[in-house]
């Protein structure tokens, strides 16, 4: 079965085509600048030069059509025709309390995703455009949605409720939802496989550290607590997001700077974090380079970033009464040995013993970066959210087909 995985943004669209018999991505790419006459489609197939096409792509329906044309292209494609795509899986950021697992798309699912627009105004509407665009181009092909929040629906009320009047939760569902759930789920499964132990017996702390970042306490295979909240703004310091701060900062800043609520929201989401403290960049590679050259603002940004990751790790060790492994993943987590070293070198109280030689190695496979006698293992496990989306889509479609056959 060939499954097309879509991650639709408001003006962009990423895709990967999976052959599920081997669980390999046989093609991938992205469409950028949707809505403009100079949109860019980039298409990649293993062992072939990247293909780049500039054209007018005014909406997501046209973008999907361009992707399908490229996948079936006589020279650059990997499929004979679009009928070779048996299912499409979508990443959807927010599923609220409505979805605790991945589901096949139907009228009720689409209605609920729209109802959740208020909780994810920058993401869910774009995902809905992606779903509709696939319907326009592949009307008979089943679609599935995999929610970033679904994995975290196992959190107990003591983890997900805020200490505010409960009427706000009952009426408006104001609570912690958590994000990056697809990544935390995938990485926890890979960690259990790598350690050769049942996931149901492990206490894990997974650290998804990229431009957006979150930590999750995974107790016996289920999310117990996570750093992001009702929105992805809460939690760790990130590339452009502030992370945790005193809520009083918002009205105080509005009064002092004569800003609107939207302007403060933009400040906290797009102009804070690493880029605000360093004054240079939101890219950890550039921060480390500047720090090594003696830039004090870059060093402060790096130190704050690492310190907050370490604080959450310590909190989650306390929350679960221990940890079997701490796992780093995503762009920064997988590639920055300097960050991992800085975080781990002050976790010695918990018995963490970093092996600097192992930590310096780069690999596309899971690996341990602590010594053999470390009381808590620290791992680097590359994430693959697209593969998990493809797996869930495959499972849902296969189960539906089997159910129809038995009926």
UniProtKB/TrEMBL annotation:
The domain of life for this entry's organism is Bacteria
Q: Which residues bind Mg(2+)?
A: 7, 385
User: What Enzyme Commission number(s) appear in the record?
Assistant: 2.7.2.1
Q: What is its main location?
A: cytoplasm
Which annotated residues bind ATP? 14, 208-212, 283-285, 331-335
Instruction: Name any cofactors this protein relies on.
Output: Mg(2+); Mn(2+)
Q: Which InterPro entries match?
A: Ac/propionate_kinase (IPR004372), Aliphatic_acid_kin_short-chain (IPR000890), Aliphatic_acid_kinase_CS (IPR023865), ATPase_NBD (IPR043129)
Question: Any idea which UniProt keywords this protein has?
Answer: ATP-binding, Cytoplasm, Kinase, Magnesium, Metal-binding, Nucleotide-binding, Transferase
Where is the protein situated, by its record's location annotation? Cytoplasm
Q: Identify the catalytic residues.
A: 148
Q: How cofactor binds (record note)?
A: Mg(2+). Can also accept Mn(2+).
The keyword Magnesium belongs to this UniProt entry's keyword annotation: yes
Q: Which NCBIfam families match?
A: ackA (TIGR00016)
Name the chain's protein: Acetate kinase
Q: What is the organism of origin for this protein?
A: Cohnella hongkongensis
């Amino acid at each position: 079965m060939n499954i097309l995985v879509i991650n639709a943004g408001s003006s962009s669209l990423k895709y990967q085509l999976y052959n599920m018999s081997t669980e390999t991505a046989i093609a991938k790419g992205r469409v950028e600048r949707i809505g403009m006459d100079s949109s860019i489609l980039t298409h990649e197939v293993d062992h072939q030069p990247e293909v780049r096409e500039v054209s007018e792509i005014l909406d997501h329906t046209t973008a999907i059509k361009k992707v399908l044309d490229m996948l079936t292209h006589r020279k650059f494609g990997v499929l004979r025709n679009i009928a070779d795509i048996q299912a499409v899986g979508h990443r959807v950021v927010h599923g609220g309390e409505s979805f605790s697992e991945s589901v096949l798309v139907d009228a009720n699912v689409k209605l609920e995703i729209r109802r959740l627009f208020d909780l994810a105004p920058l993401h869910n509407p774009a995902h809905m455009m992606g779903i509709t665009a696939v319907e326009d181009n592949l009307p008979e092909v089943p679609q599935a949605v995999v929610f970033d929040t679904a994995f975290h629906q196992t959190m107990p009320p003591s983890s997900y409720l805020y200490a505010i009047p409960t009427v706000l939760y009952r009426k408006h569902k104001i609570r912690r939802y958590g994000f990056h759930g697809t990544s935390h789920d995938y990485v926890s499964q890979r960690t259990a496989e790598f350690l050769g132990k049942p996931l149901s017996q492990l206490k894990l702390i997974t650290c998804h550290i990229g431009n957006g970042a979150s930590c999750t306490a995974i107790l016996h295979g289920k999310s117990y607590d996570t750093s992001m909240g009702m929105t992805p703004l809460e939690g760790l310091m990130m590339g452009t997001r502030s992370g945790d701060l005193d809520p009083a900062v918002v009205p105080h800043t509005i009064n002092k700077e004569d800003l609107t609520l939207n302007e403060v929201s933009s400040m906290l989401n797009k102009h804070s974090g690493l880029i605000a403290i360093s004054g240079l960049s939101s890219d950890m590679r550039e921060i480390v380079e500047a720090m090594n050259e003696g830039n004090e603002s870059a060093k402060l940004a790096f130190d704050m970033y690492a310190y907050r990751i370490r604080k959450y790790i310590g909190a989650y060790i306390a929350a679960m009464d221990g940890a079997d492994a701490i796992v780093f993943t995503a762009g920064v987590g997988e590639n920055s040995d300097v960050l991992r070293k800085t975080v781990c070198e002050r976790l010695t109280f918990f018995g963490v013993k970093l092996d600097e030689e192992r930590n310096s190695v780069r690999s596309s496979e899971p690996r341990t970066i602590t010594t053999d006698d470390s009381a808590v293992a620290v791992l680097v496990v590359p994430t693959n959210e697209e593969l998990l989306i493809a797996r869930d889509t495959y499972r849902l479609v296969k189960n539906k087909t089997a159910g129809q056959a038995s009926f």
